[in-house]
Amino acid sequence: MKTAVVLMTLALTLTACGVGEQPSAPTPQQREIRNLPGQMEEIHPDLYHAISRKRFKAEAERLATRAPRLSRAQLVVGLMRLATLPGERDGHTGLFALDPEHGRELSAYPFLTYVFPDGLYVIRAPSHPQLVGARLVAVGGTPVDEVVRKVSPLVPRDNRWSRMLRLPAWLVCAE
Known about the structure:
Low-confidence stretches: 1-9
Helix content: 40-55%
Distance between the termini: 28 Å
Number of strands: 4
Shape: globular
Order of helices and strands: HHHHEEEEHH
Oligomer: single chain
Structural class: mainly alpha
Number of helices: 6
């Protein structure tokens, strides 16, 4: 039940997000982000095994302060980053990119990749089957190695192998 509360908070935060001026009173979204560390502490057996409580709360505060000025995609990335701060050995803690249980689903590009020893390859593309087998070399003009470097910290992981296994779902998440 406690897990549902945290997931519901993330869903409410994503639903409420928008672009605007920083108001003087905290928005509901800012309050939810500021409450997130406490909610996570209640259900996580060792939330601060890889990060100090002080730093985690400071990162949540930084995101809450910026939230009213962020686009929905920027807020999604901020929440993903915050949720993965507990670090390695925490593959169950995060905002999972393509989880259909989200209150408001994230967008996905219409293909799936897989990490092979020599690169990322398209392994499924129902609307464009000719892409299957193609090597992904860039996303929107950004070299794939740079995209992987930027996206990797957002992926919940137990170790580098679980990150590599999950990475393709985050690479196709439009947000």
